[in-house]
UniProtKB/TrEMBL annotation:
Pathway: Carbohydrate acid metabolism. Belongs to the KHG/KDPG aldolase family. Homotrimer. This is 2-dehydro-3-deoxyphosphogluconate aldolase/(4S)-4-hydroxy-2-oxoglutarate aldolase. InterPro entries: Aldlse_KDPG_KHG, Aldolase_TIM. One of its GO terms (molecular function) is 2-dehydro-3-deoxy-phosphogluconate aldolase activity. It comes from Mucilaginibacter phyllosphaerae. Pfam families: Aldolase. Keywords: Carbohydrate metabolism, Lyase. The keyword Cell membrane does not apply.
Amino acid sequence: MNNKEKVLDAILSQGMLPLFFYEDAEVSFEIIRTMYNAGVRAVEYTNRGKEALSNFYHIKQRLAKDMPDVYLGIGTIKTGLEAEAFVEAGADFIVSPIVDNEVALVADNYGKLWVPGCMTPTEIHIAQQYKAKLIKIFPANILGPAFIASIRDLFPGQLFVPTGGVEIEAGNIAEWFRSGVCAVGMGSKLISRNVLDKRLYTQLYNDTLKALELVQLSK
């Protein structure tokens, strides 16, 4: 099993991909440690602030020593140059809000899993041409589970992960899995700004346990 397959397997086994960005590198690391203690082994750190690259590098160095079995990916990658920079910083996988051929090429050249964001059947088709094994349905809160249920038969075997608006509620998560997704992306509904600013690690730990449990019950 190559590295791309290992990362994909980790995301599928987990059934949930937490994603967040925070300006403080130390807090960012503690957020990942908290989720790790709850059972998370794959995390997406998003490229949404000027500190993202330096934070990412810092976190990867710490993870190599303390939690070497964590796969840390980078999200919100829109250009080949961004992809190159974060691969050099140690990114295990690349997530995009769009389908971009330069990002796809960088991921392929480095043997990294690439997860492009799609909103239409045409975008999904294009992403498949660029060898996307896992496709992010984004923004999921706008499209909803009915969208997945409607298009999944057009793309047999394609793996989908919705991101945006997935709630830590049994009914919501179950509905997404019934629609045909293989995992759910969880951002601010799990790692809210309040959790980050107030360092609510115990709350995050408990919410992560609950989310992982609901996912396993829904798969």
